[in-house]
Write a structure and sequence with these properties.
single chain, about 140 residues, mainly beta, four-stranded mixed beta sheet
Length: about 140
Amino acid sequence: MHKRGLKRSPPILSLSYSVEGGKLDLHIENLVLGCGCHSVKVIAKVEKNVISIGYSFAYEEDYDCYCPYDIDCRLEQLSPGTYTLDIYGLKPWDFKGHQTTPTFPDNPKQPEFSEKVDLTKDISVSFPYERGKYF
């Protein structure tokens, strides 16, 4: 567990979109993962009106507590429109080659987070990021 007695800020997802250039920046702040996380891989895909983001983390050693991390991701050349943003926590991988490049789950109907986002104009918004809300 995280050091006892310390309060953590809840995870927050921030989005910033620019119609000109079609750039969508995502930032997840205070995402709680096992301490000792060495690296995070992020994958993304856009199909019709669904933006899927997946993150996977790597450990070189076992961990015995949890700590907050931040994740950043940028999508470019995204056409304006209304989308469903789905975020998935994917299986961990390590540097010893035990896990291959992360892939999206076989059942994409179970994201950790799902929210409709209006990307028809420039925006900058934040949401509480409630992991497991959609399980």
